[in-house]
Amino acid sequence: MLLFGRQRLLPAVSGFVILLLASSIHGASDSLEGLNQSYKIVQPLELTPKLSLQLKLHAFLLWSSVGFLMPIGVLLIRFSSNVKSAKAVRVLFYCHVAAQVAGVALATAAAALSITNFENAFNNTHQRIGVALYGLVWLQPLIGFLRPDRGVKARSVWYLAHWLLGLAVCVVGVANVYIGLHTYRERTGRSVGLWTALLTAEVSAVALVYLLQDRWNHVVRQEEAAAGDERRSETETSEESPSYPANDHKEVAVMP
What sequence ranges are listed for the domain Cytochrome b561 (predicted)? Predict the structure, then answer.
């Protein structure tokens, strides 16, 4: 019954997100039509202390969300596939869910901050990608919640879709953070070299761990296979060698 409800709810939720994205893009196109050609040239942004704080908070929220928490959630769920303890698997799964929920909450806060305080003319790449990214960020946890039960034929299709969408959110999100930093530098003339370097270091570390997980799994499997071969070899050797009784000597009676 629960599976049937999930199957009916998924198309409805997906349709809602698609309509939300379509309406946002349509509104963006309408606003772009009203802009004259001179406005398409990047205009310098006059920073007030309040606007500067809001921009920094917006950048921090998105960085923490799609640039850190969501990639960490991917690493956690991948690491759980190598854990043999059922309790450890549950702990890693709930940590994965917590990281993703926190990431969605921070991304939503960043979107709300942008809508209420920034100009939303959608005349730059950062804003256009951001609209699509917010929709994907909300679609991903909903797909995760509506996962089919184990053993159901649709489970493999769901897993592939959930995995690909999760990677897409992380990659597009990190790329949009870079684009946002570049846009900030263009509009304000302020240097973002330090923040770009820090973001690059953090993303490189996460990517390195992600790539090494498969190699580490291979090393562990090779060690387990080698240990199994060694045990089989010792067993075969012990079976082939003759066995002798512990006391295989003749006792000599001492005559008085």
Answer: 9-220
Judge contact between 125 and 179, C-beta under 8 A. yes
Exposure letters 146-174 (e unless 16+ CB within 10 A, then b): bbbeeeeeeeeebeeebeebbeebbebbb
What is 46-224's CATH topology? Four Helix Bundle (Hemerythrin (Met), subunit A) (1.20.120)
Task: Give dist(CA 12, CA 248) in Å, integer.
Answer: 82
CA–CA dist 156, 150 (Å, integer): 9
Burial of 227 (0-12, 13-18, 19+ CB in 10 A): exposed
For position 178, what pLDDT does the model report? Answer: 94
Average pLDDT of the chain is 76
Does this model's pTM top 0.70? My answer is no
Termini Cα distance of the chain: 93
Domain ranges of the chain: 46-224
Which residue reads 């998924």 in tokens? 10
CA–CA separation, 54 and 117 (whole Å): 8
The first and second tokens of residue 165, run together, are 């969408």
pLDDT above 60: residue 251: no
If one counts every other C-beta atom within 10 angstroms of the C-beta of residue 9, the result is: 13
Tokens of 129: 């990608």
Q: Is the CB of residue 119 less than 8 Å from the CB of residue 55?
A: no
